[in-house]
Write a structure and sequence with these properties.
Layout lengths: L11 H13 L35 E2 L18 E5 L12 E2 L18 E3 L4 E4 L2 E8 L7 E3 L1 E3 L9 E8 L6 E9 L12 E8 H6 L6 E7 L8 E7 L7 E8 L2 E6 L2 E6 L15 E9 L13 E12 L2
Parallel strand pairs: 4-7
Antiparallel strand pairs: 1-16, 2-18, 3-8, 5-6, 6-7, 6-18, 8-17, 9-14, 9-18, 10-11, 10-17, 11-12, 12-13, 14-15, 15-16
C-alpha cells in the first residue's frame, strides 16, 4: 500500500496558503502537440470503493490510493515514456505497427474469437487530431469486414507505468473495440497464462446484459491456471462508451488499478493463495483494435455497413 504524508493537513496555515496558491494559478491550456507542461499532480488519497468487481474480497483492493488522472498536458514531461496525439496526416510508423490479416497465419483464424474482420492498414487513419479505426463491410467476402489493429510490439514495450487514453468507443451491435496490453513474450505459457491487461473494451451485448443500467464499460485482467483462465473485471456503471472518456490503468508491482475520468474504480492485487498465477511482472506492449462479430457477442445488423472507434490521445507515464 502507498503511505500518505498528512503533515500538510495538520498545519491549517500551510493548507490555506496552498489552497490560495492553487486557486490563483493560471489555468493550463489544452495543447494538441507533444506534452511540454511540467505541472505535477499532488498525491491525494482516494478511498472510493470499487463499483462492481467480479473477484473475491481477498484479491480486491477496496481503498486504492493513487494520483488522480490529469488533463492532457498537465503531467511532467520528464515522466512520459510514450505518447501520441495523432496530429499527423497518417499513423506514426515510429510509434505503431500493424497486425494484418485474419489471424490464420498465426494459427488463430478469426483472431481466437471467431471474429469476422480482415485487418488492413487503410482502416486506420488520423482525422481531426485523433486516430480513427473504421470497419467496413468487405465487398470481396460476404459476411466479413475490413478493420485495423495497431500495436507497439516492435516500437515500445514497458514494465509498470500509468496508461491514460482518451477514447470514444463503438457501441453498435457487432462492434468489439479494445485498448489493451499483451506480453512481449509468453514467459508463463500461451494465453492466458502469460497475461493480458485490458484498459477498456466495448461490446454492445454488455449493455443488454446489465439492464437497467444504460451501459457498462469493463477493464479486465486475463491470467491464471488456478482460475481456469477466468478474467477479473471492473465495470463502470452508467458509463456511455460512445462519448469521450479518459480511461486509466495504473500498473504497479503490487497490483493493477483503474480509473475513468479521474474516478477510482478499485483494482486487483496478486493472489495470496497462488502468487505464481500473477504474470504481470514482465514487459507488455500496447494494442488498439476494432473487431467485428466475436463469437461471444452481439452480431452486426445487416443494415449497418460501417463502424468506427476514435482515440484522441494515449500516454504511458512512469509511476
Amino acid at each position: 500500500m502507498l503511505s500518505w504524508n498528512t503533515s500538510i493537513v495538520r498545519q491549517p496555515a500551510l493548507l490555506l496558503l496552498l489552497l490560495f496558491t492553487l486557486q490563483t494559478a493560471q489555468s493550463p491550456t489544452r495543447v494538441a502537440a507533444r506534452i511540454t507542461d511540467t505541472t505535477v499532480a499532488l498525491s491525494v488519497p482516494d478511498t472510493t470503493a470499487p463499483l462492481d468487481a467480479q473477484v473475491s474480497p481477498t484479491m480486491l483492493d477496496k481503498a486504492v490510493k493513487h494520483r488522480r488522472a490529469l488533463p492532457k498536458g498537465q503531467q511532467s514531461a520528464s515522466r512520459i515514456m510514450f505518447s501520441d496525439d495523432f496530429n499527423g496526416s497518417t499513423v506514426n510508423a515510429t510509434r505503431w505497427g500493424f497486425d494484418l490479416g485474419d489471424g490464420c497465419d498465426r494459427g488463430i483464424c478469426g483472431w481466437g474469437n471467431e471474429e469476422k474482420q480482415l485487418y488492413v492498414r487503410e482502416a486506420a487513419t488520423c482525422v481531426d487530431g485523433h486516430l480513427r479505426i473504421t470497419a467496413l463491410r468487405d465487398p470481396k467476402r460476404p459476411g466479413f469486414w475490413t478493420s485495423a489493429r495497431v500495436s507497439t510490439k516492435d516500437t515500445f514495450t514497458f514494465l509498470y507505468g500509468r496508461i491514460d487514453v482518451r477514447a470514444r468507443m463503438p457501441t453498435l451491435d457487432g462492434a468489439f473495440g479494445a485498448i489493451w496490453l499483451l506480453p512481449v513474450e509468453n514467459a508463463y505459457g500461451p494465453w492466458p497464462k502469460s497475461g493480458e491487461i485490458d484498459v477498456v473494451e466495448a461490446q454492445s451485448i454488455w449493455k443488454g446484459r446489465f439492464r437497467p443500467e444504460r451501459s457498462r464499460t469493463p477493464g479486465t485482467l486475463h491470467f491464471a491456471k488456478h482460475f481456469n483462465g477466468d478474467s477479473l473485471s471492473y465495470w463502470a456503471e452508467g458509463n456511455d462508451p460512445s462519448q469521450w472518456h479518459t480511461y486509466t490503468t495504473i500498473w504497479r508491482p503490487d497490483g493493477i488499478f483503474y480509473e475513468i475520468d479521474g474516478r477510482s474504480l478499485g483494482g486487483y492485487r496478486p493472489p495470496t493463495q497462488h502468487p505464481d498465477d500473477w504474470p504481470f511482472n514482465k514487459a507488455f506492449y500496447l494494442t488498439m483494435n476494432l473487431a467485428i462479430d466475436p463469437k461471444f457477442g452481439s452480431k452486426a445488423s445487416p443494415k449497418v455497413n460501417q463502424m468506427t472507434m476514435d482515440v484522441d490521445w494515449i500516454r504511458v507515464s512512469k509511476l
